[in-house]
Design goal:
Largest sheet of chain A: none
Number of strands of chain A: 0
Number of helices of chain A: 0
Strand content of chain A: under 5%
Shape of chain B: globular
Helix content of chain A: under 10%
Distance between the termini of chain A: 76 Å
Oligomer: heterodimer
Helix content of chain B: over 70%
Number of strands of chain B: 0
């Protein structure tokens, strides 16, 4: 019986370990909201304290 | 004797790798395309060499911010390698390389869950046969993914494993450590640990400066990364010139909508916000348009700039606008990142107080 032969692929191009990806950092500011009073949400803009973190 | 065309493709791929090493991505892309044409004709579309070139081609396109085009090449590479056996060892390496590159592409497109599935599968594939050092690119990519997804502890675990493996192989002062210190700095920034972040960023910069010229892109990227942390530490005078230099540098190399340009212009806007909120808002608005063009409207990168525009609007008591921006940022981020992600935490805290469902009278 004839057996089929599957040739193992040969790699000729250069195989690297691979470089490392890097992350990046971006500023995240905090929208400053008025303090939440007891009993519910406020819409009193005058209480806003801007905090750009 | 007739020259073997595959030899020519191998030589073109070598040149493409050299161009990649020099951050000359358009040149690398051109060389890859030429190698690919030859390999498809003479080695076959299903050859591992074809996959190797496809992965480099996709990765170079990713570096230019052309992620949609890159994805098609990465998917072809992974399909080729999935159809081949995993022995000899080099085939497993190429398969993992193709998978990590596709996952990086999806991560850059903000498709974090799909990227994680690929990387987890690649870990299962590779872990039994790879050494800790061989696993470094995979673990590093997982770390970057987790950082951007706000999963800080998971990112820390991966980066620590990467650092340990690299230090064991090369010692603590090898330039190969620069990337992991850069990444640890970004993670510390994201966690709000700015003292550690600055130390790590300076460590990365020192390692790169020791082996690269001042105008090398890795040095400029490190300087800009340090600047982001200095801005957060309230040191704009040192941050601003570094950011302006990086913006000019990367704009000249890649154009105004490249991710490195957009990131650094975003951070420059944050510097400006302290002294000139109107100029900061104008710059954020330009960045927002650029991010929407480069990444698409629902990418987490877009949400970061929306968040900071919301902060400026809130600071001038324009809470209708701030709420509209915060709601949009929240809509983008909530399904994709952890609650600990700094931008999601920021807009969630704001909307908890201001209310996401109140009538909105102004939009950006």
């Amino acid at each position: 019986m004839q057996r089929s032969v599957v040739a193992t692929p040969v790699v000729r191009t250069q195989v690297r370990g691979g470089g490392l990806a890097t992350n990046h950092s971006q500023a995240v500011a905090t929208p400053a909201a008025p303090a939440l009073p007891a009993g519910g949400l406020t819409t009193n803009h005058s209480q806003a304290v801007a905090r750009i973190a | 004797m007739t020259p073997d065309p595959v030899d020519e493709a191998v030589a073109l791929h070598d040149l493409a790798l050299s161009a990649w090493d020099e951050h000359r991505y358009p040149r690398s892309i051109d060389l890859c395309r030429r190698a690919l044409g030859i390999l498809e004709a003479h080695a076959g579309a299903g050859s591992p060499d074809t996959a190797n070139v496809l992965t480099l081609l996709g990765s170079a396109l990713d570096e230019l911010g052309k992620h949609a085009a890159a994805e098609a090449y990465h998917r072809r590479a992974t399909a080729v390698m999935a159809a081949l056996p995993s022995r000899p060892e080099v085939l497993l390496r190429l398969r993992v390389q193709a998978t990590v590159a596709l996952a990086g592409n999806l991560r850059r497109q903000g498709r974090y869950a799909a990227a994680e599935r690929l990387l987890r599968a690649a870990c299962d594939d590779a872990a039994p046969r790879f050494t800790d050092l061989e696993l470094v690119p995979l673990r590093n990519e997982l770390g970057v993914l987790y950082k951007f997804a706000g999963r800080h502890d998971d990112a820390q675990a991966q980066y620590t494993a990467v650092r340990t493996a690299l230090e064991a192989a090369h010692g603590p002062d090898h330039p190969a450590l620069a990337a992991v210190w850069h990444n640890l700095a970004g993670l510390a920034h994201s966690r709000g640990d700015l003292t550690a972040g600055e130390a790590y960023a300076r460590r990365s910069l020192a390692l790169h400066r020791a082996c690269l010229p001042p105008g090398h892109p890795a040095v400029v990227a490190d300087e800009a990364h340090l600047a982001a942390i200095l801005q957060a530490r309230g040191e704009p005078a040192e941050a601003e010139p570094l950011l302006r230099r990086a913006i000019a540098y990367f704009t000249a190399r890649h154009g105004p909508d490249h991710p490195d340009v957009l990131t650094n212009r975003h951070n420059l806007a944050a510097v400006l916000a302290a002294r000139d909120p109107a100029a900061a808002a104008a710059l954020y608005t330009v960045v927002l348009a650029g991010k929407r063009r480069t990444y698409g409207a629902s990418h987490p990168e877009v949400a970061l700039t929306l968040t900071n525009l919301a902060a400026l609007a809130a600071a001038r008591d324009d809470h209708d606008t701030a709420r509209t921006l915060a709601v949009e940022a929240h809509r983008i981020l909530a399904p994709q990142v952890a609650a600990t992600h700094p931008a999601l935490a920021s807009v969630t805290a704001y909307l908890t107080v201001r209310g996401a469902d109140q009538p909105v009278g102004a939009a950006a």
